[in-house]
Amino acid sequence: MIPLPQRGGCICGAFRFRLDEDPVTIYACHCTDCQTETGSACLLAVVVRSDAVTWEGVAPELHPASTPDGRVKDGYRCPSCRGPTGGQSRGEGLEMIEGGTFDDTSWIEPAGHIWVRSAQPWIEIPENALRFEEHPSDADWLEMTRHWKSRST
What we know:
By secondary structure, this protein is mostly beta strands. It has one domain: glutathione-dependent formaldehyde- activating enzyme (gfa). The protein has 2 helices and 11 strands, in the order βββαββββββββα. The protein has helices at residues 32-38, 138-151, and strands at residues 6-9, 15-19, 25-29, 43-49, 53-57, 61-66, 72-77, 84-88, 94-98, 112-114, 130-132. The strands form 2 sheets. The protein has an 8-stranded mixed beta sheet. The chain is globular and about 40 Å long. The chain starts with 5 loop residues before the first strand and ends with a helix.
């Protein structure tokens, strides 16, 4: 269990949120798209039930980005500072909040790491975290959810 509620928002503060229940799971994505979008080694994704989040301030805007190979990846950004806030997640009724947008990030520890084949060579993935070389299957997503829940109780 994490301390609740958890709060967060964008860098300018125009967009805020409050999370009122434990996440469904947390993972780190090491794909090159996430590296490029975040300007970092990976994206920390906190997957939450949509109705567990209260959005405050300005509403985030859907910001589709086209990749060179023609794929479109949807994400949400603050309309004021354009800071990333999260995006749609796998499964109906789920959302992804970018881990770095929480005010307190001390509790954010990924249950799994995906696309580790493109992880930076200096990244050390903990032994207790699940590893997926590429995009996880539906069964792998379920395993990652169970792994997070077993660690947070």
